[in-house]
Design brief:
Structural class: mainly beta
Number of strands: 11
Helix content: under 10%
Strand content: over 45%
Number of helices: 0
Order of helices and strands: EEEEEEEEEEE
Largest sheet: 7 strands, mixed
Radius of gyration: 13 Å
Distance between the termini: 39 Å
Length: 123
């Protein structure tokens, strides 16, 4: 199973930007669908954004549309989540995840997860 590691989290003021990165342990990651999820204190993990194995199809949660952008290196083993116009409600631990399916945004279909990276947005 592929292993994932996130980086790039941190502390930011409202309106600022952060870029999260995800590195996979194997080069064949290019055949996997990829997504970002987040979990805020006291809440369930929720979908943020997904990108298919070709890099051509993306999907976003309504709460982040127009502010966040998911991307990936389709020839390599990295992915990213650019987060702009951050809001306090974006505060959460962000997880990178991968699925053997080329295209999915269903957390139940993601078998590989990173440890998460904390994002804190102050008001």
């Amino acid at each position: 199973q592929v292993q994932l590691a996130e980086s790039g989290g941190g502390y930011m003021q409202t309106g600022g930007s952060l870029r999260l990165s995800c590195v996979a342990s194997r080069q064949t990651f290019s055949s996997y669908g990829m997504a970002w999820f987040r979990q805020a204190p006291g809440k369930e993990r929720e979908f943020v954004a997904a990108i298919d194995c070709s890099g051509r199809r993306t999907s976003y949660a309504d709460a982040v549309k127009g502010r966040f952008a998911i991307d990936r290196d389709i020839y390599g083993n990295t992915g990213s989540l650019q987060m702009n116009s951050l809001k306090p409600e974006d505060t959460a631990v962000y997880f990178c995840a991968a699925t053997r399916k080329c295209d999915s945004d269903d957390p139940g279909e993601f078998g590989a997860w990173g440890q998460g990276t904390q994002v804190t947005v102050s008001s």
